[in-house]
Each structure stands twice: as structure tokens, then as C-alpha cells.
Amino acid sequence: MSSRNLIISAVGDHSFHKEWISGEPDFDLVLIYYGGNDEIFSNYAKDALICIRQKGQKFPLTGAFIHQNLSMTVQYEYVWLPDDDISISTDCVNKLFHVAKEHDLWICQPSVISVDNNVSHAITSPVKNVKLRFTNFVEVMMPLFKTSTLLSLYDDFSISESGWGLDASWSHRLNDPKDRIGVIDEITALHTRPVGSDYSRFRVHPQIELNHILHKYNIAFCKKNYSFLFQNNVLKTGWFRNLFHLYWEKT
Q1: What pLDDT, on a 0 to 100 scale, did the predictor assign at position 200?
Q2: What are phi and psi of 220, to 5 degrees?
Q3: Residues 20/41, Cβ–Cβ less than 8 Å
């Protein structure tokens, strides 16, 4: 352990993690390689504090790793769980951890752009002149957790191979805080693959997993922005919140 920050990422044969560590990282890296290439695994092992080889899907793999390495995980203050197709610089990752700590965020993520201009959730797209939005939603693609928050939520990681539904439950399970969950607009990450439509790799269709979690917690979920912290450090709510809510509620 060389940092108070940790990344855990389930990675395949074309992981972008080398970009994350190409500068001077202020975080440790754990890789869970689910591919089948011995040479790639050996190469990845040089990049990480820990690199293990295990078949499976992101959230079950991550949850199992945390459970099996709990004494190590609790030594970190924040843990980021990015997909392996996220393009972002070392400086931006370092800043992500910094902003999370500065605002005592329980869950957050960078804003998202994509190669095909299509994102899964419009609420995660960057908003001009805004530093940070306090929301009730951070998607499963790359959530950053305060470790104490992660440990209160990761028990559900095993029930959704796709991750669908987990992000809809997090705010609810944390009693819907209005200033502890956020999208950091001043940091942008690139999703390098088009939004998926082939779910054949999952044993259960993601929509069924989503419905199961919504039913489990009796959630009627809609995504909300509560307030906006602008580049001039002015915090605004009111009509800004209502305007953006009307737009994102449809997405």
C-alpha cells in the first residue's frame, strides 16, 4: 500500500489501465483479469499492486475481491471501480480522488463523453461551466466510493452480473443524501466503446436484474440533480435543478 486511494478494475485483453498509470499516480491499482491470454496477464501483473486471474463479470468479481481482501481494502480512503474501456489521464484520476475528498463525497464519478456521442445516462454528460453536480445517481460504469460507503453497499454486487439496478439503489440505501453523491463535470472521461446492446454474455438479462433490485428495495427511481457548483464556486439550486430535471427525467 503506497496511497490512500485504490482502483479495482476487472479487465480484458484491451484494457485502458495503462493510460491511467502513465503519469504519476496517487493511487494503487488492482487488476482482475478475466481473459485467457498468459502473456497479457503477465504484462498486466507488472502494472498493478495486485493482479489476479479470474473468470466472471465486473461486480461479482469486484465484490468477491473486496470480501477476500477486506483488511487491505479498509486501509484506503476511496476506491474507484472503472470499466476497462475508460480513457482518462493519470492527472484526471488523481484529481477525481482529490475532489471526492474535498467535498466529502460518498459516491461520485467523472462526467462522460463517448466515441459515438451516445451515453447511457444523459445526467452523466458534462455541463458547461459547472464543476460539480450533487445528484442521486452515479452509474455503474465508473463509480468512485468512499470506502466506508462501499463496504455498506457491496453486499449486492453478487446479485447483478451486469451491474444494472445497483446504481438505482445506492442513493436509496444511503437515505437519499442531497450533497454526498455527485457527477464531477470539470473532469471528463471518454467511454471508448459504443453503448452495448449484446447481453448474451450474461446468464440473466440485465433488465431482469434491474427489475429485481427495484423490487427488492421498492424503488420507483428517477435521476435527479439537486444542486450545481459552478466554476466560480457559486452553488445554485432552484430553477437550475428543475430545468435539468425535466430534461434528464426523460433519459
Answers
A1: 76
A2: -110, 95
A3: no
Q: 188 with 110: CB under 8 angstroms?
A: yes
Q: Report the C-alpha gap between 63 and 88 in whole angstroms.
A: 24
pLDDT at 249: 46
Q: Would strands 225-230 and 130-135 be described as parallel, antiparallel, or unpaired?
A: antiparallel
- Cell 482529490 appears where? 98
Q: Model pTM? A: 0.93
The single residue listed with the C-alpha cell 493510460 is 19
Q: Give the model confidence (pLDDT) of 217-238 as tens digits.
A: 999 889 999 999 999 999 998 5
Q: Which residues of the chain have pLDDT under 50?
A: 246-251
The 3-class SS string of the chain reads CCCCEEEEEEECCCCCHHHHCCCCCCCEEEEEECCCCHHHHHHHHCCCCEEEECCCCHHHHHHHHHHHCHHHHCCCCEEECCCCCEECCHHHHHHHHHHHHHCCCCEEEEEEEECCCCCCCHHHCCCCCEEEEEECCCCCCCCEEEHHHHHHHHHHHHHCCCCCCHHHHHHHHCCCCCCCEEEEEEEEEEECCCCCCCCCCCCCCHHHHHHHHHHHCCCCCCCCEEEEEECCCCEECCHHHHHHHHHHCCC
Cell of 117: 456521442
Give the phi and the psi of residue 3 in degrees, each rounded to 5: -150, 165
pLDDT number for residue 131: 97
